[in-house]
Amino acid sequence: MTPEPTDAASRRVVFRRFGGPEVLEIERRAVPRPAPGEVLVRVAAAGVNPVDWKLFSGEPMHDPYERSLPSGNGYDFSGTIEALGDDVVDWRVGEQVFGGLRYEAQADHLVIDPALLVRVPEGLSLLVAGALNVVGRTAVASVESQRIGEGDVVLVSGAAGGVGILTAQLCVLRGARVLGTASPRNHALLGKLGIHPLAYGDDLTEAVRAAAPDGLTAVLDTVGHGTVDLALSLGVPADRINTIADYEARSRHPVRGVGGAKAGGPELAMIAQLLADGRIELPIDSVHPLEDVRAAYARSIEGHATGKIVITTAPVAEADGIG
Asked: Is the pLDDT score of 6 beyond 50?
């Protein structure tokens, strides 16, 4: 093993082989320095996404992400700008920012092109901002793919998950009536957010018919599990179905597959402001220190998280003001 540098003051999560959460390790390194046109961010919080563990597992994926070993881990992050490289303008040390950087987010520090950063609005904690990049972009893009608006009756599958809960609330804000599938333990939460909760199960088709007797106008699928086939059986036109989860159904039917790649900085800034203003919520399922990254992914793999799982590089109180 290569000896750690004597100035190894910065930690990062790495994996040197493929497998389960047990492959994740904490590596120490020197604090990186920003090159011209880059900034150094002191990371406060980093979100956990299912795509992360699919990448470090080595399992085949439909999306062509580049993989090589050894690798850093994570994508979503929030933090504070700690240093500026030469030629950086319009940014200052001390600004709170969030965004995404594949394979680099779960670390004490990262170096990034500031064009990829979004400022954290006043009133939004770094804890929530650190979980926002993937789910925020995906939710906005999914809702926009169907131009959801007043008069729509929308089914959102997985409505208590990170993408689903933002997707459903954005539909509500646009004036739609929203049904959301979720485990019964999350039904009270969905009801509080203006979403009509439905339980998964064999009687889901009848439950949807009872809740929306005049039919659905759109379906936004975040989990798969037969949602596309259910929607088609209920008479929803294929072009009014968007799935970010069921690649097999997309190969069989002319449904849409619009995800987070269709949204960027402006959309993230918009949804961050909605959160800061209290118009929508992103529940935090659990918070794990960087050293417990394996436990964070074990929780994600279980598949029952409400909202987002977050990793912090500092105690929770600091990370959330972190504040």
From this structure: no
